[in-house]
Structure formats: structure tokens, C-alpha cells
TrEMBL record, chains A, B:
Keywords: DNA-binding, Transcription, Transcription regulation. Pfam families: LacI, Peripla_BP_3. InterPro entries: HTH_LacI, LacI/GalR-like_sensor, Lambda_DNA-bd_dom_sf, Peripla_BP_I. GO terms for molecular function: DNA-binding transcription factor activity; transcription cis-regulatory region binding. It comes from the Bacteria. This is LacI family transcriptional regulator. CDD domains: HTH_LacI (cd01392), PBP1_LacI_sugar_binding-like (cd06267). It comes from Glaciihabitans tibetensis. PANTHER family: HTH-TYPE TRANSCRIPTIONAL REGULATOR GALS, LACI-RELATED TRANSCRIPTIONAL REPRESSOR. Residues 10-64 form the HTH lacI-type domain.
DNA sequence: CTGAAAGCGCTTACAG
DNA sequence: CTGAAAGCGCTTACAG
């Protein structure tokens, strides 16, 4: 009945006093309500409402030694980051999935080594209970051993090259997706199919090229293969290269949509038309596939699903379950470019 | 000299024991090193290295009642979010600037009302010391009063419509930028200049249209004004509308680059050419201005600068300084579209 | 089902 | 400059 102290935030003691119970009982209803009588529970609930009580997250974390938060660690060069909407989609998906469990997302951007050190420091320092790893490039993962040594669970987006067996991951089925795109291009009558492959130190870049090779089998012609870095400009450049080396190609499978946009620009700049002269297939189904002309036929990566599964696996790992790896199928989306 | 306890993380007590000083002294060097003798300081530093001690952030936060973290609150529909790279750039800028002070960024995405409630709860719950507000649309800010009532400092990106006087902000000079673009279009000989304006419940959309009107003065023709929502598709649609209503326009100022891409698609689909028949000026200098053909002449918004200043003002506000508002000039970037 | 008590790991006046 | 002590606000065995 005593009104809570003037200025300060009410604490658990204030609630206990108002409810006429002990601090322990208040804490019990706060942490799940088990082993509390209905009467006590009701009194506490009322007292919480009356006092406007909110749990102090730091005190709780100190007592439980759980941070109740998760890190989203992005180790990617900044250029890629802004160019590539996939990251934003992953971020949203993860944030939303975590919100369901009332767990905030701490965003850690570590594009260079100094930032990676800082991020590692932060993660192993007890600020978070686990980490969602989004770092496509190999070699940007020197911190992985340190994190796992510290016992902080982590789940990777895409196969963590070199750590496949050490940390869990969720990846799109890049290999089969690439196969399917090539198969599709053949099905519409194309016979000289080139590719602009993504970076070969990423699992996606690697697997998609492998899928392309596998599907083509004996029809693979090395001159029809060029490489980019997933950026728009690199797609444009690689396509010019391809047109020079193999001017007779009638289709090209490009490692992601953004490079596909660049490739289309290159193709059109030589007076050829898409898809009439050269059909273009992309990968991702990112906004880049839609925002421009022609719209791009592509393999859809289910990023919402991927981020959801990542969160699910991470939460499970934090709860002590064994980690796991999963692969999720991609889906052909037909549009104007092929 | 005693080795630290086996499994547990070393605490400040372990350090004190190894260094042969009291806990208070260790804490003093941890928190700045003032009022500590050189000898003691050296001993503590050595002990920290020896034990591998790391401060427990929760314990520190509980004792100081400071969270040592800052929220980045994004209240924007998800579609916009992925379409618009500006958010990513702001995010990066803020993250980098905060990292300098060793302050992590907690990302809060609140696209709908339920998420906003949750975010407000989180912010006023003591999880963070301040918030960077990125929410262009008015009406998405019902939570502002509650946050300021809780005494949590906030700095807005762009003018917080309806709260101009209550919370600090950093905004690009949209009005002058729009004026300059129109002036430029005139300087290259265009006389019938239309505009695709952004959403009129955002300070940017509002001010840019105002700048357009102001610069044109008596030459404003209402039929040459259409509206979009900053998305690609809306730019395309609005441009078609404009071409119907005012087929003789020879230039168009579009409220952002992404809509400008859509407008270009619309223009070219009618057989007209950019910039020969219709010159197109955008706003932002986002990747969309570069990733496509033709590249877009635009007004550069200095987002790195904006995010830096936001962080600076927020940190100052957290430190108890009075809040402030600042406006930063934009810059014309000439490319192919005009 | 409930209360009293110890403990989580730090910081910060207070004396000296 | 330094140590002893109180305090930050919670949780969780432990008895009952």
C-alpha cells in the first residue's frame, strides 16, 4: 500500500512490499510463475501494474549469467553490404524471429581486422549468448576458433568453409539451384551457356559454379567462364570479358542478380538484346532482379526461411542442444531475361 | 601468484589477489586509472594479462546503471527497408562511429505497431542509454513521447515531424538540395520540369517538393507533379502518370534515386530517351544511381556524415549536454541522366 | 507454496 | 593513493 519511492524506478522490493509477499515470490512469478499460489501470483501481478515495475535487465543478467541477447555478426566489406540487399533481408528475418522470443539483436559489423578483433572481444566478453554469423568470404573467419573456445554458440549463414564440422549452419542449396538454372536455360533452347561465377572463396560462389559444371558435363567450355565479386560493376566487366572470349554464347548463368544486372548492361552496350540474343539467369531473387529492365529470371533463395532456421538452431544451441546443419532448396522464378 | 580458479571466468577478485592489491584499486584502474599509483597500476595491468580477466558487462551496468549501448530504432515498412540502401549506409555509419567509443549498436526494427510497443518497452526498460531514430514517416512515432518521458535521449535522422523542438536531429538540407537540382536542370536548357515527389508525410518528401516549388516559382504547373512512395515501382507508375498528364515535359526531378530508376524505365518504355528527350535528376546518390543504365545525376546526401553527427549528438546528450539540431548540405553529382 | 539469505561481479563514496 | 564496506537489483538453492 505504501506508494513507491518518488523518483527512482521501482524495484522488486517495491513490488514485494505492495503485494505483501517476499522478494523471492515476486521473482518466481517474474521467471515463469511456477511454484506460486494463485493468490500470491495475482497480488504480485497487481502490484507490478500498480508500481509500473520493470525488471532490470542488468541485474537479471548478473544473477543468471545470461545476456538474453544475440549478436548478428557481419564480416563483409562495406561495398558489398550496401549493394547487396540480401543482408538486409537476413537481418530483418533474424530480428523478427528473435523478437518472438523477446531477444534483442546486437548488430556487429566487422569489415576489417580491427573491427573483427573488437567484435570477438565483445562476443567472448559475455555481452551475448550466441552469434548469427554472416560472412561469406573465407579468411574472414579467423575469429571463429576463439569464439567457439569461449563456448559461445554460433550458427553460420551458408557453409562456413573450413569449419563445416565445428559450427552449425543453414545454407541454400546452391549446387542444385545452379543445376536447375542451367537445365532451364537448355530447356528454352540455349546451347552455348556461359557463366559469370561469384567469388571462389565463398561457399555460394563455389557451389554454384560446381552446379553449372556438373549440369553441363562434357559441354563445359572454359572460355565461357568468367568471375566476378558479386558486385554490379564486376558483373559488367566479366560479361564484357565473356563476350570477347566467347562471342557466340546464347545464354549466361550469373552468380547473383546484381552481377546479372551488370551483365545485362554489358550485353546491351554491344547492341545485343536480352533475352533474344543472350538469355540471362541470375541467383538470389533480390530486389535487383525486379528493379530494372528487363526483370531477371533467377533462383530464389528463401532468406526469410534461412534466417528463421538460423535463429531456431541458435536458440537450441544456447539451450544446450547439439548443433546442426541444414540445406534449403531454391526455386526458379521466371521473368523477362530468360 | 595463486593460479586463477579452474573453469570459471576470472573476476576482479582474482585480479586483485594476483596483483596484491584490493578490489577497489583494480576497479579504479579499470575505470580510468586515476588515483592509482604507477606501481599499483602496473601490477594490476600485469595481473589482468596473466589471468585473462575481462570485465563482466552486466555487473558493471548494474553498479553504474548505464547500459553502455545504444539502440538504432528503425520504424519503416520492410519493403522500403530492403529497397533503400540508405538505411544500410546509415547503419554502417552509426555502427562505425559508435565502435570508436566501444559502444555496441542494438538494432531494433519496428515496422508495425506491435513491434513498436516491444521496442519502446525495450528502450524504456533500461537496455540502452540512448536511441538513434530512423523513421521517416510521421505517425510512426507515437512512441516518442514515451521514450522522452522515460528520460532516454534520442536523436532523429531527418526532422522528426511534430517533435522538432522536443528531440534533436540531423538532417540533410533537402530544401536547398531540391532547389539546386531544379536550377541545374534549367541550366542545361530544360524549361518544362516535372517532379515525382516522395511521400508527403516525411520531412524529406515534403522539403524536396517545397524546394522544387520555390525554385520554379511562377513556372510551377500542377500537372507536372506526381507522387511516389520512394520505391522503384512507384517511380515507374508516377512517371507514366506524368507522361500522360504532361507529355511535353523535358526534365523531371525525382525525389530519390530508386524512384528515378523506375521513372527511367517508364520513360524508355514510351520510346523516349534519357537524357535526350527527358533529363532525369534524382536524390540520395545511393547505389541505385550507379547500378544501372544510364547512371543517374543526383543530389548526394552525406549519410556517413549524418550518422557520425547523430552519434556525436547522442553521446553528448547521454553525457548530459543539451540536445541540438543540425542541417547538412547536399551536393550535386553529375552523371548520364541529366 | 513461501521466506530468509547468500551470491552474481562490479563501482563508489568514505575514511584514512 | 588505498582498503573495507555498502550497494546496484535480481535469482536460486535451502529450509520449512
Amino acid at each position: 500500500m505504501t506508494p513507491p519511492p518518488a523518483k527512482k524506478r521501482p524495484t522488486i522490493d517495491d513490488v514485494a512490499r505492495v503485494a505483501g509477499v517476499s522478494r523471492g515470490t515476486v521473482s518466481r512469478v517474474l521467471t515463469g510463475g511456477h511454484w506460486v499460489s494463485p493468490d500470491a501470483s495475482a497480488a504480485v501481478t497487481a502490484a507490478i501494474a500498480e508500481t509500473g515495475y520493470r525488471v532490470n535487465p542488468h541485474a537479471r543478467s548478473l544473477a543468471t549469467s545470461k545476456a538474453n541477447s544475440v549478436a548478428f555478426l557481419l564480416t563483409e566489406s562495406y561495398e558489398r553490404l550496401f549493394d547487396d540487399p540480401n543482408f538486409a533481408i537476413l537481418l530483418r528475418g533474424a530480428s523478427t524471429a528473435l523478437a518472438q522470443s523477446d531477444i534483442p539483436l546486437v548488430l556487429l559489423m566487422a569489415g576489417n581486422e580491427a573491427e573483427q578483433r573488437r567484435a570477438t572481444e565483445f562476443i567472448t566478453g559475455g555481452h551475448v549468448d550466441g552469434v548469427l554469423l554472416v560472412s561469406s568470404h573465407q579468411g574472414r573467419q579467423d575469429f571463429l576458433p576463439e569464439i567457439s573456445r569461449a563456448g559461445v554458440p554460433a550458427i553460420s549463414c551458408g557453409i562456413p568453409l573450413g569449419f563445416e564440422r565445428k559450427i552449425g549452419y543453414v545454407a541454400a542449396d546452391d549446387f542444385s539451384g545452379a543445376q536447375e538454372m542451367v537445365r532451364y536455360l537448355r530447356s528454352i533452347g540455349r546451347t552455348r551457356i556461359g557463366t559469370v561465377a561469384g567469388p571462389q572463396d565463398t561457399s555460394g560462389g563455389l557451389s554454384r559454379l560446381r552446379g553449372y559444371r556438373d549440369e553441363l558435363g562434357d559441354d563445359v567450355v572454359e572460355d565461357r567462364i568468367a568471375y566476378g565479386d558479386y558486385g554490379f560493376a564486376s558483373g559488367e566487366r566479366a560479361m564484357h570479358e565473356l563476350l570477347e572470349r566467347a562471342p557466340d554464347i546464347d545464354a549466361v548463368f550469373v552468380g547473383n542478380d546484381l552481377m546479372a544486372r551488370g551483365a545485362i548492361k554489358a550485353i546491351e552496350s554491344t547492341g545485343r538484346r536480352v533475352p533474344e540474343d543472350i538469355a540471362v539467369g541470375g541467383f538470389d531473387d533480390s530486389p535487383a532482379a525486379l528493379d530494372g529492365s528487363p526483370t531477371i529470371t533467377t533462383m530464389r533463395q528463401p532468406f526469410e526461411r534461412i534466417s528463421q532456421e538460423m535463429v531456431r538452431l541458435l536458440l537450441a544451441a544456447i539451450a544446450g542442444e547439439a548443433t546442426a546443419a541444414m540445406t534449403i532448396p531454391t526455386q526458379l522464378v521466371r521473368r523477362e531475361s530468360a
